[in-house]
């Protein structure tokens, strides 16, 4: 099957990488949600890892943020 027959080649659908983003969970979650909307993604797929209760309390969870705020379907896999 010729490349790109069912969908355009990936190189034509990617946006340039962001120049700057924050490191807290909300900032990363906001960035991912914005990119999903900008690219009209079918869904957002990410892995979740156990960061520990104390770290999660102070840093939050990107997966938790996305499941509450992203307009696209979110699939969270246990990593």
Question: Termini distance?
Answer: 33 Å
Structural class assignment: alpha+beta
Overall geometry: elongated
State the low-pLDDT regions, or none.
Answer: none
Order of strands side by side in the largest beta sheet?
1-2
The percent range for helix content is 25-40%
Question: How would you portray this structure in words?
Answer:
- 37% of the residues lie in helices and 13% in strands.
- The protein has helices spanning 25-38, 53-59, 62-69, and strands spanning 44-48, 74-78.
List the helices and strands and how they pair.
Blueprint: H1 25-38, E1 44-48, H2 53-59, H3 62-69, E2 74-78
Task: Give the tags.
alpha+beta, two-stranded parallel sheet, 13% strand, elongated
What's the short version?
The chain has helices spanning 25-38, 53-59, 62-69; strands at residues 44-48, 74-78.
């Amino acid at each position: 099957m010729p490349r790109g027959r069912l969908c355009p080649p990936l190189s034509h659908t990617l946006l340039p990488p962001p120049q700057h983003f924050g490191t807290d969970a909300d900032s990363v979650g906001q960035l991912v949600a914005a990119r999903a909307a900008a690219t009209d993604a079918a869904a957002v797929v990410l892995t979740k890892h156990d960061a520990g209760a104390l770290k999660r309390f102070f840093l939050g969870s990107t997966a938790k943020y996305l499941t509450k705020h992203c307009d696209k379907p979110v699939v969270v896999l246990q990593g």
